[in-house]
Design goal:
Layout lengths: L1 E5 L8 H11 L14 H5 L3 H12 L13 H10 L2 E8 L4 H15 L3 E8 L6 H8 L5 E4 L2 H9 L3 E5 L11 E2 L2 H8 L1
Parallel strand pairs: 1-2, 1-4, 2-3, 4-5, 5-6
Amino acid sequence: MKKIISDCDGVLLDWAFAFDVWMAEQGYQKLPEADQHFSQTLRYAIDETEAQSQVSRFNESGSVGYLPAYKDSVQYVTKFADDGYRFEVISSLHMDKYAQKLRTQNLKHIFGDVFDYIDCSLDFRKGKKSVLEQRYKGTGYVWLEDNVSHAEAGDAIGMNTYIFDHPYNRSYNGRRVKNWKELYDATH
């Protein structure tokens, strides 16, 4: 079976855009050059406690049920599905079951019936290596990420990792794609 394992935010859905809109609604102003950073402390000049609190509040809010698709993801996820690929999602969101349900509904609404498995229960402050190792070690499946440490976790267990290019992940030295079209071309 042809399978792609994917992170959600910054790959399938545009979490950063939605979070920035939500933060503006909360009265926060994003700093210039904020897109160069993954950490919300550097994007908004707030301390780590406040940053984690705001990310957690956003991730358990109704907003997570309405995140827009990331770039050309809809077009190329559809093409992959037409070619016989199925998708699984391993995502750090929140332990709240209602937030997870909203995330799942959002993914299915945007992309349709392309998912065999969606796990968005991982803590955003922790890694993904143990989950990836349990489910995917030795499979050689394609693994899509935007986070350097999570991409490296996929590399460490032998996944076929691609990182989606963002200014904050330029330190990653593995395979890199700018969009879903590049991924499609690289895998076909």
